[in-house]
Design a protein that fits this description.
heterodimer; A: Rossmann fold; 6-stranded mixed β-sheet; 4-stranded antiparallel β-sheet; 10 strands; globular; B: elongated
Chain lengths: ~250, ~240
């Protein structure tokens, strides 16, 4: 379980986060949604320690992460898998090397064991015969899948995804969403996804936190969201005529 | 501003010299960087230093037109100039342009594409993993390149002098053997080791803290080379003043 308490973060005079609280439970896909500039990526970066919050605390299974120094954070970080918006695969390494990198750094597995693990992870994301390819030789969807394979290589307890569907076609987006949901159930990990893809919100959102101008404006499940009367949330989620029609038909 | 950057640079170096997570992987990276910095720059150093040696011979011969000065002095001046100054400093400046800009853009690109964030999320000390192998490789390979540069410059002087007729090969060889002071090589090696550190660490710092996109990565590379070249020249003066 991940808990964030009263997180504030500013960049210069720009106050991006204004006292965010949330609890992300294991085995669930937790979504952070909001418009551009609402602070959703900043929340994610504060949780994983890429940004230090100005105020507030982050707990990973009751351990206060924000108080820890780099060395103390390492055991927790070994349990974190993260899929970045642009995949962030290491350019100079092949797909296989990308996946086994953390294993080489932190385990004493033999080369054969590491390759078997890489193959298992690639099978899990439905990729075959790509081991020796470089990231520049992959399509956007394949990069995301390799990113997920790398994220699960260390059997993570916490999975973070920063806009996993950005730049993907609708069909591939749905596949990535399904994969994230399956892996969350399979590993019983605490998954936090930052997205503004409404298909994801309606499809996989067990818990949804809506940010608006740096504040938590609403939280609940995707079913509750359909019945919400919060104007800002409705303006964001049901912005398109198609989504409005879908909501009206459900209502 | 300059103190802010200097402070950040020192703090980065503190992170760089933390104990590696796994030496085996770092060693592999060190050998890779030694190949990139050393072998990758060899042809450039060979060409530049050979021509500098040849031109130096011609210019010294041009300036020492006197029956009172033996021609062997041309070899002597060429040798000492190359060992003390031209070998280490010209090589340092050339390597700053080639290796420094490559390091800055490599690390800067990794920063803007979130690859450094990915390393940190894994619990890897990103400054250590990315920068330490480069610094170690630079400190080892730049002195090797400087030795090669000095040898090529002296040989280039011989070839240039012979081809132009500015100095007879026998006079030149006699000159480079006369009055040799081994301490000049020590000074050259001290310079080379320090330049190796500057050539790798300053661009790594500029690349590591780059913010923005491709434009900023390019600008960081340019700044790294300019700052690095000025630092090399300042260190050149300080080392020379302290050691000679």
């Amino acid at each position: 379980m991940i808990e964030i308490q009263n997180i504030y973060k500013s960049f210069g005079d720009n106050e991006v986060l204004k006292g965010i609280d949330a609890i992300f439970e294991p085995g669930k896909v937790n979504l952070i949604i909001g418009g551009s500039g609402s602070g959703k990526s900043t929340v994610l970066k504060c949780i994983v320690g890429l940004h230090e919050p100005d105020q507030g605390k982050v707990f990973f299974d009751q351990q206060e992460f924000t108080e820890m120094n780099f060395e103390e954070r390492v055991p927790i970080r070994r349990n974190i898998g993260m899929l970045f918006q642009n995949s962030a695969l290491f350019d100079s390494m092949t797909v296989e090397q990308n996946i086994i990198f953390a294993l080489s750094m932190f385990t004493d597995m033999s080369q054969q064991e590491k390759i078997e693990r890489a193959n298992f992870c690639l099978d899990r994301v439905d990729l075959k015969n790509v081991n020796k390819l470089y990231p520049s030789e992959l399509s956007g969807g394949m990069k995301k899948r390799v990113g997920i394979a790398r994220a699960i290589s260390m059997n993570p307890k916490y999975l973070f995804c920063d806009e996993p569907n950005s730049g993907l076609d609708p069909a591939t987006s749905i596949l990535i969403d399904e994969l994230i949901q399956e892996l969350t159930e399979e590993y019983q990990c605490t998954t936090v996804v930052v997205t503004h893809d409404m298909n994801s919100v309606m499809g996989i959102g067990d818990y949804i936190m809506f940010l608006y101008k740096g504040q938590k404006f609403w939280e609940g499940s995707n079913e509750e969201m359909l019945r919400s009367d919060v104007q800002e949330l409705n303006d964001f989620v049901f912005a398109s005529p198609l989504m409005k029609a879908a909501r009206d038909s459900i209502k | 501003m300059i103190f802010h950057h200097f402070g950040s640079y020192i703090l980065l170096l503190k992170k760089v010299f933390k104990k590696p997570e796994k030496w085996k992987i770092y060693l592999k990276e060190i050998f890779h960087e030694m190949n990139e910095i050393g072998i990758g720059s060899l042809s450039l150093i060979l060409i530049i230093s050979t021509f500098i040696g040849a031109v130096m011979t011609l210019q010294i011969a041009f300036q020492l037109v006197s029956d009172l000065i033996p021609n062997a002095v041309i070899g002597q001046i060429n040798r000492d100039s190359n060992i003390l100054e031209l070998g280490p400093t010209i090589s340092g400046l050339v390597l700053m342009g080639k290796v420094g800009s490559a390091i800055s853009s490599q690390i800067g690109s990794m920063r803007v594409t979130e690859q450094i964030d990915a390393l940190e999320i894994m619990g890897i000390n990103a400054p250590g993993f990315l920068i330490l192998p480069k610094i170690i490789a630079g400190v080892i390979m730049v002195p090797v390149l400087v030795i090669i540069a000095i040898f090529c410059a002296i040989t280039g002087g011989l070839i240039g002098g012979s081809l132009s007729g500015a100095v007879a090969p026998s006079d030149y060889i006699q000159g480079i053997q006369e009055g040799f002071n081994g301490f000049t090589v020590t000074v050259a090696m001290v310079k080379a080791v320090i330049y190796g550190f500057i050539i790798t660490s300053i661009p790594a710092y500029k690349g590591f803290y780059v913010r923005g996109g491709a434009l900023e990565v390019g600008q960081a590379g340019t700044k790294a080379v300019v700052i690095g070249c000025i630092t090399i020249l300042a260190c050149d003066y300080i080392i020379t003043a302290l050691m000679l």
